[in-house]
Amino acid sequence: MPRRRTALTALTAAVLAGFVPAGAAAAAPGGAAVPPPEKVPRAVGTGGAVATVDPDATRVGLEVLAAGGNAADAAVAAAAALGVTEPYSAGVGGGGFFVYHDAATGEVTTIDGRETAPQAMGADAFLGEDGEPLPFEEAVTSGLSVGTPGTPLTWQRALDEYGTLSLAEALRGATELAEEGFVVDETFREQTADNEERFRRFASSTELFLPGGALPEVGSVFRNPDLAGTYELLAAKGVEALYTGELGGEVVRTAQEPPVADGAAPVRAGLLEESDLAAYEAPLREPTRVEYRGLEVYGMAPPSSGGSTVGEALNVLEGTDLAALPEVDVLHTYLEASALAFADRNAYVGDPAYTQVPLAELLSDAFAAERACLVDPDRAAPKPVPAGVPDGEYGPCPAPAAPPGDGGAEGPSTTHLTVADAEGNVAAYTLTIEQTGGSGITVPDRGFLLNNELTDFTFAPTDPTRPEPNLPAPGKRPRSSMAPTIVLQDGEPLLALGSPGGATIITTVLQTLVDRLDRGTDLADAIAAPRASQRNAATADAEPAFTDAYGAELTARGHAFAPVDEIGAATGVEFLPDGRLLAAAETVRRGGGSAGVVHPGDG
User: Fold this and answer.
1) How many other C-beta atoms are found inside a 10 Å radius of the C-beta of residue 379?
2) Domain carrying residue 222
3) Which residues are annotated as catalytic?
4) Nearest to 154 by CA among 211, 206, 113
5) According to its UniProt record, which residues of this chain constitute the active site (predicted)?
6) 590 secondary structure, DSSP code
7) Calpha distance 184→10 (Å, rounded)
8) Burial, 10: exposed, middle or buried (Cβ in 10 Å; 0-12, 13-18, 19+)?
């Protein structure tokens, strides 16, 4: 429906008490180190809510809400700000999935901003001359991994479909942030250090992210005038600057001829052409939908596997009264349901334009009941478990079949933001450039990294006797695990959430939903709870706090765990019964997140 247009107006300092104004970092005398803005993981109030991993991005989103913008406007503004402060996770060179609840219509719709493969890419693109898959790191740090960026068109589509601002207005806060800079924290420095070797392979990445040839210091101010200029170009000329204009030409040249530094080892050239950019679309897609405990849970449909896998697992879990079980029993059942859903994800989910995904059957109650019969309440099944047969004919537990493949590798990065406004519009938006640092290749003088999203394809079939739904193909969108999720109660928004983390996104969202909806945990506490991620593998990833608390009892039931430092970095917003909004983010993971509301404490 048509939306009103409104200018973004100036705000008084009192509106966003507790948030550091843009440019405040630059005011430190004598170039002295300054502390980064405070990260507040939980906020309650009215007028709208924003939760991201970064305080500057949360502030920018709140400014838009306080000035009269809606949830779509604020989500785009905050996402653009994350392109400044979280450049290793998101930005103009990436893509993502946008799930939106429209308060006026009561509908939930989605935008598919997933990157696409070049038309020149075939099924053997990631195979070497010997016919074997390329080493993963070689494929990642290359032009070959770069898909057509979807983020700018996602922003424009969101504003056109749901918003009230122009793209120029929505980009204003992020442009100022890029010009004036943000304070480097431990997380940004650590992520830069993790990518230092890769960045030094490219002259443009070294120049931007290693100023003066060194890692940025904690407490210093990081400015990105090149990105500010890119945002100004998009504001002036629209997203056509990327898809049919000068910026697109620069992206293609960078992918085809990566700016390798003097003396650095060569990298593989990309296949991206200007015609790929010109053909790109960010389509509206029907969301996935399942009913769970009387609630409506909406997610992202293929090519994301997030909505289908979370939805199938919830359907499997619904047959068990989790609220009546002890905590370890709940976790055991959650891990088993996750493994079953991942088996089916790996076997059946891919780009629906290239693969017949049996989505309705994967999300059917009857299929879930057949799958649930494999869950032994006392003992973990040997992993990997076989995929089911979603053929519409269900009965007693079927005979075991061959296990599916592992689904390929996905990077641990990405970022997620959640926004709600005072009218009840809600945006759950997960955006990414894939790996932390993407391809490692910065577009010269443009201030952003190119994605390595095409390494989300399965490089080669794991079982030549079965169809592989996620092989590369011309124009195809690689399978994703991004799972932006909105939950309605009686047609009204109850909560929304999402997370980064590659394939662990699905389990992070699922575990948080189980904690909140079945166990009654406060949303902020559910986000902070220790996590484990079972993705149909012999071992489940688990954080130290999880194994400390539950490892012995779960191991006795047959579970096996592999230690990882952290899983996910979720954000969420909940509509409380008294009319207030709760914004929630991480307390510790990825340096902690930032939650805010327009009017704190108001009720």
Assistant:
1) 13
2) 42-286+414-598
3) 414
4) 113
5) 414
6) G
7) 26
8) exposed
Residue (of 518, 531, 505) closest to 588 by Cα position: 531
For the CA atoms of 593, 596, 600, 603, the dihedral, rounded to the nearest 10 degrees, stands at -100
Residue 480 assigned as binding residue? yes
In the chain, how many domains are there? 1
481 belongs to an annotated ligand binding site: yes
> Looking at the domain assignment, is residue 307 inside a domain?
no
Please report, for residues 56, 153, 259, 571, the alpha-carbon distance to residue 156 in angstroms, rounded to integers and kept in the order given: 22, 5, 29, 23
Give the predicted TM-score (pTM) of the model.
0.94
CA dihedral 550, 309, 90, 117 (to 10 degrees): 140
Q: Which two tokens stand for residue 180?
A: 């004036």
Q: State whether the Cα torsion 253-258-259-262 is positive or negative.
A: negative
Identity of the residue numbered 370: E
Closest CA to 103 of 430, 485, 486: 486
Which CATH number do you get for residue 420? 3.60.20.40
The answer to whether the annotation marks 200 as part of a ligand binding site is: no
Q: Which helix H or strand E contains 523, and what residues bound it?
A: helix 523-528
Block residue for tokens 């800079």:
181
| Domain assignment of residue 494, yes or no | yes
CA separation for the pair 159, 361 (Å, rounded): 33
Averaged over successive runs of 10 residues, the pLDDT of the chain (603 residues) comes to 39 40 43 73 97 97 98 98 97 98 98 98 96 96 98 98 98 98 95 97 98 94 98 98 98 98 96 98 98 98 98 98 97 98 97 97 97 96 96 78 52 83 98 95 98 96 86 97 98 97 96 98 98 98 98 98 96 97 96 96 62
Say if CB 404 and CB 349 are below 8 A apart: no
Query: Which amino acid, residue 108?
Result: V
